[in-house]
Design goal:
Radius of gyration: 25 Å
Number of strands: 22
Bound molecules: glycine, manganese (II) ion
Helix content: 25-40%
Strand content: 15-25%
Strand order of the largest sheet: 6-5-4-1-7-8
Number of helices: 13
Distance between the termini: 39 Å
Largest sheet: 6 strands, mixed
Structural class: alpha+beta
Length: 441
Amino acid sequence: MNPEAIGRDEYRHRRRRLMERMPAGAVALIPAADTKARSRDVDYLFRQDSDFWYLTGFSEPGALLALVPGRDDGEAILFCRERDERFELYNGERLGPERAADVLSVDRGFPVSEIASVVPGLLEGAAKVCVTLGDYPDFDRDLLKWVSGIRARESGGVVSPGEFIGLKSLLHEERLIKSPNEQRLLFRAAEISADAHLRAMRACRPGLSEMQLEAELVHEFMQGGARTPAYPPIVGGGANACVLHYTANDAELRDGDLVLIDAGCELEHYAADLTRTFPVSGRFSGVQRALYEVVLEAQEKAIGECVSGADFNRPHEVGLHAMIEGLVSLGLLDGSLEEILESGSYTAFCPHKSCHWLGLDVHDVGGYQVDGRWRKFREGMVLTVEPGLYVRPDMEGVDAGWRGVGVRIEDDVLIAADGPVVLTAGAPKQVAEIEAAMNGA
Ligand code: GLY
Ligand code: MN
Ligand code: MN
């Protein structure tokens, strides 16, 4: 746990902002993530729930944050596991409720064993409860039990919560705009990831397996201080690049093929999401280069649209139009831009959207539309721009020479006052830069 990566004041500020957005008389409950079994007696590496982390910076499972605006005896209450010598001998130190107020700057710490006796008291008299239901079934069950326990005493004059309010709609609007500290962490995660892609380009040669390139990426992530990838790395050689969520990473990299790497690290819970496509042996063929340049031009145009005030969908539209025009000029699509958009024939080559929010989650939170219209970019938002073009090996009506080639180029972009800032700019993407990096420059 490193609460100083963001700073206690910022966590306190976030809780305050959320409490200000909550309706009058509401209480919020935010559970921590659970541990998950991977195999017998072995858990997956624990990853904290992003909402809980956003509000606490506390990385232990088995915890619950309660926010009770206006409560005299403390508004921010953390329930966490008690110190336990035997447990800590095996698993390392626990914070313990007595240190919660000091270390995390919450108002009160309680042991988790007191949740069932304390939380119903916090809910009693509250008109509304702000929660996210559906993520943690045990918590949902407990909550309903507490509420029905209070209801059972209504005839005695007790007021029970009458309404559940979705916490996401309140909190995720806040998470959408990244603070300067968050921008700093996202930038550092992007830098480490860019270094990792550069390392993979330099290490790449025919005969390696895809997972040996994955090893180069993970090495650089960890050397940079990022313990894990933000998502399972995709390393797809040749036609494997056309499998959008390919993660087998066990094929041999072959001379004459491209390899597509989609890999980013997670740093202090903040994600990078970065894709580069490059030739296994360091030189693009004519066909590969032609397709690559189409995607690159589309991506650069799309990034240019990432400006405050523009619609969220604008970069995708501009990039897609550029790819369609490129495919027409290469003879892979026929017709005018309007006809191709109308018929949807482009989806055989360009099957996915080009942008998503980025933050604590790789596909970060925050609605893409507001009242049925695309959300407008504002300073502090961070998104990916990732157009891709794929000619599957079995694609009909396409000359064999184009088949089995997949290209995606993905960068992480901050909407800033004076235009888009590409956080992942350290990873080469111009053809000449890639070839130079792979051939000893
Ligand atoms: N790596 C997941 C994505 O690009 O959205
Ligand atoms: Mn990606
Ligand atoms: Mn992405």
